Every structure is written in C-alpha cells, then in structure tokens.
Amino acid sequence: MSNFGVRDRGHPEIQRALFCTQEHLKTCYCSAYCMRALLQHRIVKFLIAGSTATGVNLGALYVLVDLFGVWYIFSASIAFLIGFCVSFTLQKFWTFGNRETEKIASQAFLYFLIVAGNLGLNALGMYVLVDIFGLWYMLAEVLLLGTIACESFFLYQILVFKTLPRRSHQEPAVES
C-alpha cells in the first residue's frame, strides 16, 4: 500500500503519479520555506518596498508627462513625492518593522528631509541626464532611483528607524 491506500504492485502509472505528487509537495514546501526565509531579510523587504514605490513613481511620471503633458522635471518631482508616501509607509512598518506610532511624526519629518535631499538630487540628475546627455527621461529616472535607493537604505536604517542589521546568530568576540 502506498501513502494513499492504493496498491502499487503492477501499476507503474500510479507509482509514477504518487511519486510526482510527493515531489511536487516537497517542491512547494521548499519554495514556501525559501520565500519566507527571504522575506525575513531586511534588504529583500527594502527592495520589494522600494520597487513598489518605484512602480508608483514611474507610473505617476508616465501619466503626468505622456497623458497630461506636464513638464517632465515638474512631473518627476510630483511623482517622487507620491512615491514618498508609499515608501515611508512600507519601509517603516514592513521593512524595518518599526511599529512605534508616538515617534511617527519625527520619523516622517526626518524621512522627508532625506527624501527632499533626494528630490533635489533627482531633479538635478534628471536635468543632467536628459538635457545634457540626451537620455530618455524614463531611463534617466530608473538610473537615478536605483542610485538614490542605495544611499537611502543606510540613511533610513541608521538615522530614521535607528535599527542595526540583524544577525542570524551571535558571533563570539574575537580578541587580537
């Protein structure tokens, strides 16, 4: 008898089907386990949250420029601010797991100061990449958002949410 109460002798199709089903279940379990393990890493969460905010940013940029005919630099600024709202919410509560609501105003203000600096870098970068180097505005924005994301991760972690990178285990102190 197999795991499912079916006689396996003389029925290679049933054996093959049962084996495939068991292997499929193992694969699904491993995939779910791997996904859960990946989502426990802050950098992966940061990238997912940032990608979501970036998608919102690029979508808003496209709508403003191509559908409403708004000047691309002004549109990039508005799109960046819309992305800010999505980003702050996801980064605070999901990526950095910061559930403190009593500090939310000061965190949002500090986060906004960083974003405002990034907005200036973004506008200047858009001007340089589009007007001086002739890049397509969407490609310029993607390049700028990637660069700004790297700098932002460390500033948010250290200054805004004041969290240190997680370690999977305690490492013994090494004396020299």
Short description:
With 176 residues, this protein is mostly helical. It contains 5 helices and no strands. It has 2 domains: 35 residues; 120 residues, no CATH class.
Protein topology:
Blueprint: H1 12-39, H2 42-67, H3 72-95, H4 104-132, H5 137-160
Helix pairs in contact: 2-3, 2-5, 3-4, 4-5
How many domains in all?
2
Radius of gyration: 24 Å
Rough outline: globular
**Tally of extended strands?**
0
**Number of helical segments?**
5
Helix coverage percent? over 70%
Mean pLDDT: 81
Q: Tell me about the biggest sheet?
A: none
Model regions low in confidence, pLDDT < 50 over at least 5 residues? none
Order of helices and strands: HHHHH
Distance between the termini: 62 Å
Alpha-beta classification: mainly alpha
Strand content: under 5%
Characteristic terms for this protein:
176 residues; 74% helix; globular; mainly alpha
Structure description:
The protein is 74% helix and 0% strand. The chain has 176 residues and is mostly helical. It folds into two domains: 6-40; 41-160, no CATH class. Helix 2 (42-67) runs antiparallel to helix 3, helix 3 runs antiparallel to helix 4 (104-132) and helix 4 runs antiparallel to helix 5 (137-160). The N and C termini lie far apart (62 Å). The mean pLDDT is 81.
